[in-house]
User: Fold this.
Amino acid sequence: CDKVEIDLSSEYYSGKTFTIETVNNSKDNVYIKSATFNGVELDKLRLKHNEIVKGGVLKLIMSNVPNKELK
Assistant:
């Protein structure tokens, strides 16, 4: 699992952390198989700015095959 944590300054945002985690990440697995945000499965690969600045965890499951259902 690879992980990036972005601290959201309380001066401008919630003061929480926005985390991006990947599972099965490799040089061959360049496609997103599925994604969840705060444990809720996403049916599209978009987050609104106001969702991100509240903090949370975006988890990306990676694959070597494109998921054409995610847009």
About this structure: Strands lie at 2-7, 17-23, 31-37, 40-41, 56-63. Helices lie at 49-52.
